[in-house]
Design brief:
This protein has 97 residues and is of the alpha+beta class. Strands 4-3-2-1-5 form a five-stranded antiparallel β-sheet. A hairpin with a 4-residue loop joins strand 1 and strand 2. The protein is globular and about 35 Å long.
Amino acid sequence: MKQMLLSFLTIIALAVPGAFAQSKLDLQPNDTLHAVLEHQVGKPVELRMKSGEKMGGKLEKVTDRLVHLSQLTDADFYDAAVEIDSIAAVVVRVRSN
């Protein structure tokens, strides 16, 4: 299940176009969703929730149970705390057009 989730994250990260490229998404064999999130702190991300909802913003902090997003997409003046267990995928920009 974890292997399939990591493969899914990689495919989504490579398929989503964007304006600003970030460093390459470099997954390690023992990585978890938590580890992927920790590597993206300080960068813009889009979270795909298990419910199907999308939530984007700057990843500020990752704890054992929560993720703090600031500068939410389409809601710049708002922040969000998201439960890690409700996240299905992390989408990051890895290259520009």
